[in-house]
Amino acid sequence: MIIIMKMGAGEERIQEVVAQVEELGFQAHLSRGEERTIIGVIGDERPVSPHVFELMEGVERTVPILQPFKLASRDFKPEDTIIPINGMRIGSREVTVMAGPCAVESREQMLEAAWAVKEAGVRILRGGAFKPRTSPYSFQGLGKEGLEILGEVKEETGLAIVTEVMAPEDVPLVARYADILQVGARNMQNFSLLHAVGESKMPILLKRGMMATLEELLMAAEYILSHDNYRVMLCERGIRTFEKYTRNTLDINAVPVLKGLTHLPVIVDPSHGTGRWELVGPVARAAVAAGADGLLIEVHPHPQRALSDGAQSLRPERFAQLMKELRRVAEAVGREIKLQTPNSKLQTSIPSMGG
Amino acid sequence: MIIIMKMGAGEERIQEVVAQVEELGFQAHLSRGEERTIIGVIGDERPVSPHVFELMEGVERTVPILQPFKLASRDFKPEDTIIPINGMRIGSREVTVMAGPCAVESREQMLEAAWAVKEAGVRILRGGAFKPRTSPYSFQGLGKEGLEILGEVKEETGLAIVTEVMAPEDVPLVARYADILQVGARNMQNFSLLHAVGESKMPILLKRGMMATLEELLMAAEYILSHDNYRVMLCERGIRTFEKYTRNTLDINAVPVLKGLTHLPVIVDPSHGTGRWELVGPVARAAVAAGADGLLIEVHPHPQRALSDGAQSLRPERFAQLMKELRRVAEAVGREIKLQTPNSKLQTSIPSMGG
Amino acid sequence: MIIIMKMGAGEERIQEVVAQVEELGFQAHLSRGEERTIIGVIGDERPVSPHVFELMEGVERTVPILQPFKLASRDFKPEDTIIPINGMRIGSREVTVMAGPCAVESREQMLEAAWAVKEAGVRILRGGAFKPRTSPYSFQGLGKEGLEILGEVKEETGLAIVTEVMAPEDVPLVARYADILQVGARNMQNFSLLHAVGESKMPILLKRGMMATLEELLMAAEYILSHDNYRVMLCERGIRTFEKYTRNTLDINAVPVLKGLTHLPVIVDPSHGTGRWELVGPVARAAVAAGADGLLIEVHPHPQRALSDGAQSLRPERFAQLMKELRRVAEAVGREIKLQTPNSKLQTSIPSMGG
Amino acid sequence: MIIIMKMGAGEERIQEVVAQVEELGFQAHLSRGEERTIIGVIGDERPVSPHVFELMEGVERTVPILQPFKLASRDFKPEDTIIPINGMRIGSREVTVMAGPCAVESREQMLEAAWAVKEAGVRILRGGAFKPRTSPYSFQGLGKEGLEILGEVKEETGLAIVTEVMAPEDVPLVARYADILQVGARNMQNFSLLHAVGESKMPILLKRGMMATLEELLMAAEYILSHDNYRVMLCERGIRTFEKYTRNTLDINAVPVLKGLTHLPVIVDPSHGTGRWELVGPVARAAVAAGADGLLIEVHPHPQRALSDGAQSLRPERFAQLMKELRRVAEAVGREIKLQTPNSKLQTSIPSMGG
What we know:
The structure is a homotetramer of 355-residue chains.
Chain A: E1 2-5, H1 11-23, E2 27-32, E3 37-42, H2 51-54, E4 59-63, E5 83-85, E6 88-90, E7 96-100, H3 107-119, E8 124-126, H4 144-157, E9 160-164, H5 171-177, E10 180-183, H6 191-200, E11 204-207, H7 214-225, E12 232-236, H8 254-261, E13 266-268, H9 270-274, H10 277-290, E14 294-298, H11 316-332
Helix pairs in contact in A: 3-4, 3-11, 6-7, 10-11
């Protein structure tokens, strides 16, 4: 941390700050500039609140030097974390596409969707049993029944399952059916939930809050990693801005920024990131071109009848077409989307830190 | 709901939409304009997803007509809801100030803070036992021990307690010690928690998410009200914008907007809304002048030693001075902040819907 | 400026940076921390681009130490700048209300508005002859004819005039009729215009851009001040956020922040800051309570017939009522809004730097 | 336009609104819903201010039906506008890359940059002679001298020139040297300038304001088009959000949205859109994958010595490498970036509306 003194702060004020720095067990290092004196705090500053200094007389402000996240940083773990799921290696040269309906509505709907996305080359099926909805009057998901449907569909199709968990007490239940636990955007800073999914040791898809900075996203991941659960995927799904034409503004910059800051895989959700099915294709292609490790795409056999997010869901035939386009873009940037669909039933993934 | 057809959408497309409207049990009402045809949907549209129509051929977009919230609206309940707590009547002509430290740190700290704010005229003490923190490396609150301290302080000083609950399973525990349950900004759309606090029948202080529109705040309240728990206070605590000088941007417009849309009391938190103690006074005065029904202010006996939010906490003597200023502003706008401190121990508030 | 080296940056990298610092004529000052080395640059850093260092190998980032604005800062000029206009002293203990229609529409409309606001105690009339409009199909203002109307109204009523200038070449023309030149929000960073109004030596009302930080507002003021024109008022008029219920989000925090950072008077425009007439009163009261030096309020004799901004304009009788309320709030915070209307014709203001 | 009446608005209120609609020369069309009556206004609503109705008693709000832009819309002109410049056809199947330094600093710098980008396949050189800078203490551009340098470089290399014009009175001067006039983000709503560049009949590169919605961008284009100047390119260059890690947030959604709404070519500026050279490559690839018609990229022979925007400028060798990557991505999405560099001197482009 660096402490910047006010213009004209006298020697006494400076010595008080130095004394406080030393009292906290750090070393102080002074630079006397033309207008201001600055005091460097030498040591691991993370546990110290900057207001300890900011409230002292003569102090103008403080500047943190260290990144607040540690386990999530490339400084801590330079090589990419690779998460094996159902024969895919998320975070490797392969680009992983996860697809399926927003919500589990019925066995028939899920099976139809599952076979369709599998046919297009997908090995991980999405589908929500617990649905966070802005309005109490909207469809809230099938809950446990939805999980059971997911279990049956997984059994039948061999697809792995990614599904959202909304409350700490539901983690064990959801973990019984899912291969990846999704923490939704609205819960990115639900710290009780972050602890619970960390404890679960399951692979986690952590969605960026719609008004969370990238630093906050990495701090949320840090909560999970601190339980020694390193199988965390970060998901950019659009942020909230003043622009009203799209539901959210997909932050494409986030992809290369995160790839630089962290070793964790970066997934993009172009469905929520745009909110309109006709924009999903172009933005999905952009995400792959920008270096995303995977995509999360809403596909519904009958979007018009969907109980949620129909407006942003692709029909299966459009999705199959998109998969072909994505393969070409992936190749153009030196990546790969595997063609063959898995013949075997679900392959159990072996937990391992990174790869 | 109104459905706006694309320019040049043919008669066949229009009839398909009309048929769909009628199939869903509504009446359709056509207006043929010069460039576009619009179709009115007559009936309670709230349970219908607009994408049912938006995905039909020839449809450009839909426009909702009804406000999505119902129980929270003035249309539903025109008169102000008044919530009696410890001799105060929140939502009445009185302006209610709640104050205290960000976090419960120790029995001594809480008692010192409690007597100081009581001395200044406050009857409701704030203090967090469960603390949502961006970083897993920051102080996370004392938990159950913190609640017990709050219980003792309440017993000793006669102050009522407002404190945050972060997880549904903690609601019964927190309710044992608190007079008002606070739902924090990061949990405004933690729907499991909203259901749980609704069920508790306790008075609720619902903080606006830093990313939440006023409509979303009212929808979150609607979750609680739908459990027939009408004792909900809405709290504006600053939203996230591009401005970097302050921690958040306090949305002062929210005060008169909410007072117009809803019957629920509106509280303002100038401490989080600014993030800097030297701004708390001016913004607190502004909130009262704008018509807020109450304030939530961080006061700490020794801000420099505070384990969280020290930079935005007032010292007791500054707070006492601010209370005097607030009284003058309240009077200038035809409101009142009661002078005398309560002699008696905590008065039990009788649950009642509104006033 | 402080230069933060990457973790593990070697001695060679550090010495290269030191050499570059010294080559630019500064002194370098090293602090070797546990994880990173930081290098202080001693001297006036303002003219140096940080990328000179940021692009060097081994450098992580740089942190500016000095505020980028100088003439506008309280460090440079601690006492409040007071701008005398038509018998008012803007920036003093008095709170100055400027009011009138958004646009000059006709001689009759302006006269009616002028007498109404004068009656309510106002001495400075607003009214736009040049109107920046989002759409080329909207009313664009009467231009020169509008200025002539303003001139006549000023002559007849003795009110001073504040009106917008949109292009550098119009500055001399507008200056002939106006007492205060307004630079609109959309032109806050129209640097050619800032130079021109600086050169004019006229009092300037500089509106904050709807997505400008406070630092950028102060830098825009700095352009004007650098022409030795110190009669600059800063105007908070709402910023653009995600909230859709109001036209803009009035940043009430800006008032005490600016009063702390700069000696220039701070004006608030609750009409644009809310966009709805029914919110203007509460927010105007809030602005005075927060410490604003003045208000800019849209008043129209017949809002429904207004050619622009009708929805946010007050009728004269509501405005007169508001003036009474504002007086009470001003007194409650130790300020004053003068009661008596001026009998005399326009008093010429004598240019002077600050007070 | 649709007028939504308040719940419970009586027949008298409804008839007053109908009378007002008809007085303005429109037809009124009533739908009586369960909770509210809505009134359709039939006719071209664009010139009518909604507040005419919004201020009437009993009216809750109004909803516009028509898009506010006309000439820029696909409804008006369905086929893509193609703008021929120096042998390129901007807006066609080709993707056009424009590149060069942020600012003209010297003849040597510009020539070095020009030959480098030409070598990489570029035919349009960027470089600013007039520079809008946040601080009056930063380099403000060489002005007329800079234009003369651009003229010489154009003569020598055969590259076409895109350069910014900041003030209406400079348009004729800049037009003498430039092939494309750039309107910068800060001037997107400088309406005097929009009129002047419209009048010039030159090709225009119109940058989206950092605070502007896509609708406002299209309205700004409408100003230019209304002068019968159809050679307008829209440029997404990042918007301002709460995210602090990048200078701006590039709105990748804008590319497919604009391609859907308008016939004008869409250019992306990944240099300003990210603010960091290491992010330019991934985001440039994303823009092409999303369907952009062109890119505007900052390239500087010696970024470290650049007088502005050095941190986001690519070195020539990195840029040459990026051009190869972009070609592969363009092909993957069915587009093309031409390989051969032009042997001939500048080919004069023939003004024509669209293609």
